[in-house]
Amino acid sequence: MKILLMGNPNVGKSAIFSRLTGVDVMISNYPGTTIELKKGKVKLDDRLVEVIDVPGTYTLEPTSKAEEVAVRMLEVGGVVVNVVDATNLERNLYLTLQLLERNIPVIVVLNFWDEIRHLGIQIDAKKLEAHLNVPVVPAVAVTAEGIKKLVSRLPEARAHANKYSEEARWSEIGKITREVQKVTLKKHTFLEKLEDLSVKPLTGIPITLSILAFVFWLVRFVGENLIAYLFDPLFELYLPAVTGLSNVLGGSGIIHDVLVGTLIEGKIDFVQSMGLLTTGLYVPFAMVLPYVFAFYLALGVLEDSGYLPRLATLVDAVLHKLGMHGLAIIPMLLGFGCNVPGALSTRILETKRQRFIAATLMAIAIPCMAQTAMVFVLLGPYGIKGFGIYFVTLFIVWLALGFLLNKVLKGETPETFMEIPPYRIPYLGSLAKKLWMRIRSFLTEAIPFVLLGVLIVNVLYVLGIIDWISEAAAPVIVGVLGLPKEAVASLIVGFLRKDVAVGMLLPLGLDMGQLIVASVVLTMYFPCVATFVVLFKELGAMDLIKATAIMIVSALLAGGILNALSDLVSKA
Amino acid sequence: MEVSLFDLRTGQKAIIMGLKGGGMFRKKLASLNIRVGKTIRKITAQPLRGPVVIEIDNTEATIGMNMAKKIVVESLGAE
Ligand SMILES: Nc1nc2c(ncn2[C@@H]2O[C@H](COP(=O)(O)OP(=O)(O)OP(=O)(O)O)[C@@H](O)[C@H]2O)c(=O)[nH]1
Ligand SMILES: [Mg+2]
């Protein structure tokens, strides 16, 4: 037997799934958080039963990819736990009635039971149960209220094979809601006023700009302070240990260079030494992790509050000019954390063309947090002028390329039609859990690549391969981009990890113009391998080849133009 | 007076009188309970041919401009 969690988007299916199975999944306050089937197990009278979190769907008439997935799951069979948003009973019952036509056992969960009261809604769950003739369990997924009851009543799930026409379904729903639900007039709350203000352009745009500026400031503030007061002191404590190791190994030789790296002026330099135990640990933990932490803290609040669909609405008109829906802002924002989840979440866009444009633009012009952190180190000393030019360049590339792709690629962008959930005060517990999930996946997925990157740098240097490639690539690197040919090593490592790559620019003694050119090119020319693999799965080989060609050409173009401009400025 | 949702003044409540489109169009709207006879409130319309935002039941919906032009409503005035 299988348990299928089904319901409209954003009704709390994943929250219930996580309560039932103990498996951590992404839970956010916007429709389309879950993009693929998630499986877990729940214990029912000493038996382990599989539970599947199905992407949200409004109907069982397969009109989109997500709905097809849901309908196909039904054919597999099992018990359907139909999660219903009690604050939108009428609309949610449509899917419920469709499920009751499928001859599959159903149990209904009335989720958001905590929210109906302050909305002035009263629902008689007993009466609803009598009407539907299946168990109905009120629940609050975020506090686990009702979950035990749900488990204990699972065996009572019942199958029906009603037959309704579309018309009849709606009139039945009308009848049921009239009988089980009472709505009294409610007062407008502060959050509701804020909902209106944040989608009206006149107030919404300033609100958005303030939020973005605040997030940017917060990420830098939290990141810098974590480094200065926590991670740097920790590495100070660690320094004697590696210095000891360095002495034992005699200060040079292959093993010393791989583990400790090369000594800079006779001392270990955590950023530049390039050893597994020095740079290999310092970059991910003390340079990137603090910013990753700060960014995901902010992103979690944006996700759980319900702000993102409003942002998507505000930018919809502009994003349509770039061949995408406003909703494409979500993969972009996730991409600022890490391009991998960013690429995955392009699935919330319904057409292949949109997904291609969104994935390509994200991979080219959205620097992940690992990269941004290093750019702060590199360009931070030049202040806003330094990283300002970097971000503005990427933004212009993003706009121009999107505009171009939308003109060149065949096909149109369908109109936006989406649900905006209410604002909700995020639960601290949920925020902390999500933050931890993301930090954990950064630690487990990024660190092996960082270490591998550092190792490969060493191997390539020892074998002389880097020198050889530097010579070969010199015309482009020196001629077009105005960088020293040693910068090639960084571009090679950039395939693996952007943070290590950006760090490798430090010892080259570049001026501000060169640092900007190098950072921009490193961001644009190729995504890291991890992203590349996901893009391959999402786009397929042909589209990925196209995307890669676009990346390389636009990186050289942007780098070349920046280099020319910086020459002009320095001559003037 | 009947107008399209696109032409309805911002801030007004209105009853949906008709949907000028085929079965797919109606089904799409029905997924958010936007059906003939329902009461909605127009919150705003975005500039640059952007979408219209309405309140329906306890959620809001963003609806592309051309779709909004095909939704016929009768105004109930401001709240
Ligand atoms: N107040 C309250 N919030 C809830 C409840 N259940 C879920 N939420 C919140 O509602 C939002 C949506 O929850 P999810 O579990 O991601 O919903 P979902 O049905 O999996 O959504 P999709 O995967 O997008 O279809 C999250 O922000 C949850 O924290 C509840 O019973 N009460
Ligand atoms: Mg989900």
How far apart are the termini of chain B? 17 Å
Radius of gyration of chain A, taken over Cα atoms and rounded to an integer in Å: 27 Å
CATH architecture of chain B: Roll
Please tally the helical runs of chain A, counting DSSP H or I stretches of 4 or more residues: 25
CATH superfamily of chain B: Ferrous iron transport protein A (FeoA)
Q: Main β-sheet of chain B: number of strands, strand sense, barrel status? A: 6 strands, antiparallel
Tally the structural domains of chain A: 2
CATH-derived topology of chain B: SH3 type barrels
In the predicted model, the low-confidence regions of chain B spanning at least 5 consecutive residues are: none
The small-molecule ligands in this entry are: guanosine-5'-triphosphate, magnesium ion
Would you tell me the overall average pLDDT of chain B? 95
Question: Strand count, sense and closure of the main sheet of chain A?
Answer: 6 strands, mixed
What is the first-to-last residue Cα distance of chain A? Answer: 75 Å
Fold and architecture overview:
Chain A is of the alpha/beta class and 572 residues long. Chain A folds into 2 domains: 2-183, P-loop containing nucleotide triphosphate hydrolases (Rossmann fold), CATH 3.40.50; 199-571, no CATH class. Chain A contains 25 helices and 9 strands. Chain A has helices at residues 13-21, 65-76, 89-99, 113-118, 125-132, 147-153, 166-180, 190-199, 201-248, 254-259, 279-305, 308-314, 316-321, 329-337, 339-344, 352-365, 369-379, 383-408, 428-463, 465-480, 487-493, 498-503, 512-524, 529-539, 541-571, and strands spanning 2-7, 38-44, 47-53, 79-85, 106-111, 121-123, 136-138, 181-183, 417-420. In chain A, the strands form 2 sheets. In chain A, strands 2-3-1-4-5-7 form a 6-stranded mixed beta sheet, sandwiched between helices. Chain A has a two-stranded antiparallel sheet with strand order 6-8. In chain A, helix 9 runs antiparallel to helix 11. The mean pLDDT of chain A is 93. Chain B is an alpha+beta fold and 79 residues long. Chain B has one domain: SH3 type barrels (Roll), CATH 2.30.30.90. Helix content of chain B is 16%, strand content 46%. Chain B contains 2 helices and 6 strands, in the order E-E-H-E-E-E-H-E. In chain B, strands 1-6-2-3-4-5 form a 6-stranded antiparallel beta sheet. In chain B, a hairpin with a 6-residue loop joins strand 3 (39-45) and strand 4. Chain B starts with a strand and ends with a strand. The relative contact order of chain B is 0.36. The mean pLDDT of chain B is 95. The interface between A and B is medium-sized, with 34 and 29 residues. The complex binds guanosine-5'-triphosphate and magnesium ion (MG).
